[in-house]
Recover the amino acids of this structure.
């Protein structure tokens, strides 16, 4: 039976409940009275249940859909303003013992270049990322207890945090590795990680097991219950996601929201982030072989309704998506994007050649970080390199309470402006610097608290004089 507080995967992600929800949504997709009542209630910014959200996703009424998109934009603005957090992935190793049919890292792939970064190589990669201007990384590694044991991941984190180059420093390391034990999650917490990220790929148990025919990832329950173990291990910021295109998107949309509801109900803290990747071409992977691909319009609707359903959660779109697609979904709900990304093992210090490809998927947005920052500034967004909440202990329920009350903006807006100023001083092109300085001058005057505004102005002057790392 469905039980959102249960710690058993098939109870908090219950197949019968999902199917009943989809049936309910289909029957009510033209129920104007219900749809309008859900839109009105969602204006309180307290979110919607998975079943209510499914109705909005299914909605077939053009005028009501216009209201849905408008509401998502309003909620995005209320919680996140015009700030967009920047990050980059760093692939440590593509050795993997799983048989995932959608990933070129699967163990049967004998022609992909297998790589594992040494600590010296990680140092060089980190310096290269610092020299781009990045302050936040997401570490990626295949599942291989021999080549990528937890001790290796911990050593990599220590190396990255230990490197200070010129004015560069990686201040937050998020980790995206395979489901593991409570003990190992405690080790990751002690190593100082930010968010633990794990994509479910699909919540449909039958499809999941078919897509993961061999290897430890085949165990649906162990994978799906990983976030509960991570939080038991002390990691209070976790990131969910599915790989849209593997299974019917409506099913996974509902499962994703049920997982968020479960964490809120069972542990008291919902997901820190939700990612919405779509399947992309890679080495021996052709998306045409997967029949559940979704259009750009459906993708935009998914982002929109997730923003309404879980307004407190950060939403991430990576360089899997094109410039055009990313521009569209930024205003609908996305609050974090990657920039200047490489999906190969390493690839920042020394770009890979075509003959030595180790990439997990093809990047769609190949612009440099400076080009992306410039693009965001053109659209009046504030590219933020802030990591203050993590370093000030504003994580888990403390972070969520600040977000839900709207108080987080008192920290985020000033911190975003000061970290943007750092980027402009140390890494930006002259054109980007000019646009950024103009935006900072404009945005500083919008800070409502006069004391905070005065402090920010003082720190901006100090940043220009060479001082670094101010934060609220």
């Amino acid at each position: 039976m469905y039980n959102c507080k249960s710690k058993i995967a098939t109870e908090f992600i219950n197949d019968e409940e999902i199917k009943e929800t989809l049936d309910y949504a289909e029957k009510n997709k033209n129920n104007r009275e219900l749809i309008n009542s859900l839109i009105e209630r969602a204006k309180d910014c307290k979110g919607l249940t998975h079943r209510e959200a499914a109705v909005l996703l299914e909605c077939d009424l053009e005028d009501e859909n216009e209201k849905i998109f408008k509401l998502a934009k309003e909620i995005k603005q209320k919680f996140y303003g015009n700030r967009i957090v920047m990050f980059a992935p760093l692939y440590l190793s593509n050795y993997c013992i799983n048989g995932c049919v959608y990933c070129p890292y699967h163990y049967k792939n004998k022609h992909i270049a297998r790589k594992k970064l040494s600590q010296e190589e990680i140092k060089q990669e980190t310096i290269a990322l610092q020299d781009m201007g990045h302050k936040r990384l997401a570490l990626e590694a295949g599942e291989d207890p021999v080549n990528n044991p937890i001790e290796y991941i911990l050593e990599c984190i220590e190396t990255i945090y230990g490197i200070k180059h010129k004015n560069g420093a990686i201040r937050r390391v998020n980790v995206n590795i395979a489901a593991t034990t409570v003990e190992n999650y405690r080790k990751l917490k002690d190593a100082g990680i930010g968010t633990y990220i794990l994509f479910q790929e699909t919540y449909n148990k039958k499809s999941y097991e078919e897509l993961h025919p061999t290897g430890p990832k085949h165990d649906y329950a162990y994978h799906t219950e990983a976030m509960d173990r991570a939080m038991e291990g002390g990691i209070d910021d976790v990131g969910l996601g599915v790989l849209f295109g593997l299974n019917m998107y409506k099913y996974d949309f509902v499962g994703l929201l049920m997982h968020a509801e479960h964490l809120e109900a069972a542990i008291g803290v919902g997901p820190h982030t939700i990612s919405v990747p779509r399947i992309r071409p890679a080495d021996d992977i052709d998306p045409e072989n997967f029949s559940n691909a979704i259009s750009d319009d459906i993708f935009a609707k998914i982002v929109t309704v997730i923003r309404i359903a879980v307004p407190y959660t950060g939403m991430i779109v990576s360089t899997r998506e094109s410039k055009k697609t990313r521009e569209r979904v930024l205003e609908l709900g996305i609050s974090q994007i990657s920039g200047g990304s490489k999906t190969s093992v390493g690839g920042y210090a020394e770009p890979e050649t075509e003959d030595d490809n180790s990439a997990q998927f093809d990047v769609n947005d190949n612009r440099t970080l400076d080009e992306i920052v410039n693009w965001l500034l053109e659209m009046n967004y504030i590219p933020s390199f802030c990591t203050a909440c993590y370093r000030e202990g504003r994580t888990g329920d403390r972070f969520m309470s600040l977000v839900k009350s709207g108080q987080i903006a008192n920290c985020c807006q000033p911190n975003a402006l000061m970290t943007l100023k750092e980027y402009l001083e140390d890494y930006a092109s002259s054109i980007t610097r000019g646009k950024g300085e103009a935006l900072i001058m404009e945005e500083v005057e919008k800070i409502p608290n006069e004391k905070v505004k005065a402090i920010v102005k003082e720190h901006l002057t100090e940043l220009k004089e060479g001082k670094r790392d101010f934060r609220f």
Notes: The CA atoms of residues 4 and 262 lie 5 Å apart. The chain has three domains: 9-76, 82-384, 405-465. Residues 9-76 form one domain.
